[in-house]
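Justification of computing resources. Each target in the renewal requires a structure prediction run like the one illustrated here; the chain below, 436 residues long, is used simply to show the kind of job we budget for.
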Amino acid sequence: MQLFQYVLTIACVGCYAGSNALASEQSDAKGFIDGSSASVNLRAMYQNRDLRNGAANHNAGTKNGYREDSGLGSQWFFDSGYTKGTLGLGVSGLGLASLRFDGGTGRQGNNMFASDSQGHPETAQSKLGGTLNVRISNTVLKYGDQVIQTPVFWSYQARLLPDVATGFYLVSREVAHLTLSAGHFTALRSPTGMWDDSVNGRDRNTGRKRAGLTAADIAVATYDWTPRLSTTVAASDIDDYWRREYFNTRYVYLIDGQHSLSTDFNTYRTRSVGEALGGKNDNVFWSSALGYTFSSHKVTVAFQRGTGKTGYYYGVDGAGTVLLNNPSQWSDFVGEDERSVQLRYDLNMSNYGVPGLTFTSRYMYGWGITTPSGEEGREHELDLELRYVVQSGPAKQLTFRVRNAVYRANDAYNTSIYGADNNDFRLMVEYPISLF
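Resulting structure tokens:
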């Protein structure tokens, strides 16, 4: 709780000291009912993963090398307004549901749906949750079920439904250009709902804690020096797993109205603590990217490097907690001692008469990976993505997204160390709707 208490103290001081720096959001509260809003995000998804070079679909318990899943997910959100006065009270509601279209026994395995006791994918899954909210000035404290996105605790959202964390989360914007946040979480529910880590207990034979989140403390600070320069520092303490620190700075230099340069630097430092339930996790990973934008085009080059005794592990702190430059559709390029490079090209078709249409291609190559055999591990991946967002009319913000990845690794790093060679195809249609 120390990280959470530390940021909470700073935020409370900021509520007093920063009250003259920014206008108070709470002073403009519209009331519990008048300030309320609701929305729903619908997402349909199809995914197939073709495992190559003899790899089997172990997730489905079969020898075939093919996984295929499809379904529809809906994410419902409700936020009340805040009561008027110095202290504002409110609530938020969260409803998650998904329905399987396809992906029967023998083909499932893309972590889109839970499996029953017989290994069959569930037809539907759902969860309801909510938070109690308190606001003073520009500081909000929430307790309950939440979708969290920070560099050291990130709810995974690449499937139909997101990770859902349970606990306290505070966000404070009392000082101009500075955002502070902190959290204390005691459970993390996976996108498929296959586990909820709040009650794991201990193994009766060994006395050790069972793997799963029991407590996570996080603290994050972001300062916007200018509209184009920002810095973020963050830290987390995952009980009996690891402690992690994060640093990021990014800058955009405008050459003229058509040209710009951008830089992005990230680093993580991770150390195992307590019973180290996730195994050893002692490493430093950093990455740096340089981008050049000209008219509708952008070219980016990136380099990523890992040092230490292990590769970079995550998951109990959210399956999206890897904000480096080279993580891609399949691989994160975070093997032990791994170095990787990326070449990326982005095209915005607005200037060519198709606003809302974008194309992305990127190639990553990793080498120097330490493996148990002593042979150098190597991997590479090619990603292609086409995305279209409807710009106006009743279907505004309706999004179509097609993604394809081709991943290969050498024998020293393939299958048992990271993952099998595969071709991964995903089609997503997403429609956010504001209800009121």
